[in-house]
Amino acid sequence: MEQTLENGLQVILKKDKRAPVVTSHIWYKIGSADEYSGKTGLSHALEHMMFKGTKKYPGGIFSQTIAKLGGKENAFTSKDYTAYYQTLPSQYLEHALKFESDRMNNLVIKKEDFLKEIEVIKEERRLRTDDQPEGVAYEQLYASAYNNSSYHDPIIGWMEDLNAMSEQDISDWYDNWYAPNNATVVIVGDIDFKETLQLIKKYYGPKKRVKIQDRTIRDEPVQYGAKEISIQIKDKPSYIIMGYKVPSLNSKDIDTSECYALSVLSGILSSGQNSRLQKILVRDKKVASYADSGYSMFSRNDPLFLIDINPLVGEDTEKIQKELDAIIVDLQTNLVHKKELDRIKAQVLASEVYQRDSIDYQARILGMIKTSIGDISLIDKYTENINKVTASQVRSVAKKYLVSNLKTIVTVNDEK
Predict the structure, then answer these.
(1) pLDDT for the residue 233
(2) Residues 387-411, mean pLDDT to the nearest whole number
(3) Mean pLDDT of 289-314
(4) In terms of residue numbers, what domain contains 143?
(5) Which end of the chain has fewer CB atoms at under 10 Å, N or C?
(6) Which residues contact 227 (CB under 8 A, 6 or more apart)?
(7) Are residues 120 and 240 in the same domain?
(8) Does 240 share its domain with 195?
């Protein structure tokens, strides 16, 4: 069930009565992609501050109540959105809606709370990015691949911007973006549509629209060749990550079948023990302990097709890159055999179907697609479109997108 309230709040409801449990999400169409130079990390910092309480429910009352009711709650920020959720016994859904709707426009942002929380965020950045070769490489990959795209900056923000951030920055960001006409409520689980919609109207219906500022479109300029970044970090293991600029379902003037072919191509590279990366780099050549690829067709802007590798200790990263280039050239030159293609399609679809057993995953997919793309009917078409992908289409997208003028590669080596 899908509906839009008069104030612009979008509502998606889905029944799943296998257990007396419900998950309640709210997705705001605001993420690091909406930030700008000098003000990075605002969306993620606001996510942290959202747990500091309102006038009506100060401090940790929200979290404590959800826990007492046998539920759990959390939040996450991406480049494209910020989302909050509670999963709890279905008879307590009203409690989640009451608390969540209150903090949509009643959050209290105190200076003392902000000063404590920004230090928590800085420490999170140190632990997850600055002290991890994978974190440093991932951040540098996006910063180097994108000159102008809003995906250039890290979700957590640059440390320099965190140092300069104020509680007023957070307050302004909250006032600009947290509103019913910039949000989607997604509820999945043991629910009655009519009763649930009445609860949503009760708690969110009185919320007033705000003027959502125009989002600046930041087109990425032409790339003229491969970008190669070498990082040396003392006493840390080697690491390789690369990204190719590719389209998403949101991209203009593209054949959307290419997105499904790219998804299958990622599966051929890394889905299962017999995938190309696992078989060649890990088992046959024995140059890597881990190799993976990833692609999200549901990104708001053009994403990266990612490949990352953990070399075995002592293995030369240039040698591994040559092995990887050979794998890609083979995919650009030769058609994938039908048996392999069918196996990969089955694995890609099985992974998706298995994850849908979780009501939380169902809500995440609905929220992500609605917020980033706008059309949740894509979920029902996913299986059909994956099954339509041909070996020729896989070869075509490999030849079109896995090329040097769309490629950025970051290697981490031990400092000499």
Answers:
(1) 87
(2) 97
(3) 96
(4) 2-204
(5) C
(6) 144, 145, 407, 408, 409
(7) no
(8) no
Nearest by Cα to 400 from 323, 296, 305: 305
C-beta separation of 170 from 42 below 8 A: yes
pLDDT of residue 235: 82
- The set of residues, in sequence order, having a beta carbon less than 8 Å from that of 50 and lying 6+ positions away, is 75, 84, 103, 107
Q: List residues bridging with 25 in a β-sheet.
A: 85, 186
In angstroms, the first-to-last Cα distance of the chain is 59
What's the whole-number average pLDDT of the chain?
95
Q: What is the CA radius of gyration of the chain?
A: 23
pLDDT > 80? residue 415: no
Same domain, 240 and 176: no
Alpha helices in 255-404 (DSSP H): 257-270, 276, 317-333, 338-355, 359-372, 377-388, 391-401
The total domain count for the chain is 2
Measured distance CA(211)–CA(306) in Å, rounded: 36
Catalytic residue ranges: 47
Band of residue 140 on the pLDDT scale cut at 50, 70, 90: very high
Sign for the CA dihedral angle at 52, 54, 59, 63 comes to: negative
Residue found by looking up tokens 């309102």 in the block: 54
* Beta-carbon contacts of residue 132 (< 8 Å; ≥ 6 apart): none
Last residue of a domain, one of 204, 237, 264: 204
DSSP strands (E only) in 149-246: 183-189, 227-233, 239-245
User: What is the rounded distance in angstroms from the CA atom of residue 42 to the CA atom of residue 169?
Assistant: 7
Q: Residue 206's pLDDT band (boundaries 50, 70, 90)?
A: very high
CATH assignment of the domain containing 253 = 3.30.830.10
Q: Quote the CA–CA distance of 64 and 160 in Å, as a whole number.
A: 34
What SS3 state is found at 27?
Answer: strand
Judgement on whether residues 154 and 289 belong to the same structural domain of the protein = no
Residue 348: how many CB atoms within 10 A of its CB?
23
Distance CA 219, CA 216 (A): 9
How does pLDDT run across 81-126, given as a tens digit for each residue?
A: 999 999 999 999 999 999 999 999 999 999 999 999 999 999 999 9
Residue 23, helix vs strand vs coil: strand
**Residue 416 pLDDT more than 70?**
no
Alpha-carbon gap, residue 311 to 281, rounded angstroms: 9
